[in-house]
Amino acid sequence: MKVKVEKLENSKVKLTINVEAEAFNEEYEKSFENILADIEIKGFRKGKAPRKLYLDRFGEGAILQKTIDSVLNSSYEKAVLSKKVHVVGKPEIDIDFENLGKDKPFNYTAIVEVFPEVELGKYFGVEVKKESDEVTEKEIDDYVARELKNRSELEVLENVALENGHTAVFDFCGSVNGVEFEGGKAENYSLEIGSGKFIPGFEEQMLGMKPEEERTIKVKFPEDYQAKELSGKDADFLIKLHEIKHRVLPTPDEEFFKELKLAGVNSVDTWREHLKSILAIEKKEANNNKFTDDIIAAVCAEAKVTIPETMINDRLEQMVARVEQQAKAYGLTADQLLAYQGTTLEQYKKLMKEPAAKSVLEELVIGKIIETEKVKLLKADYELYYEDLAKQYNQDVATVKKNFSKERVEHYFKTLKTIELLKEKAVITA
Question: Which option is the CATH number for 2-113: 1.20.1050.10, 3.40.1080.10, 3.30.70.1050, 3.40.50.2300?
Answer without folding.
Answer: 3.30.70.1050
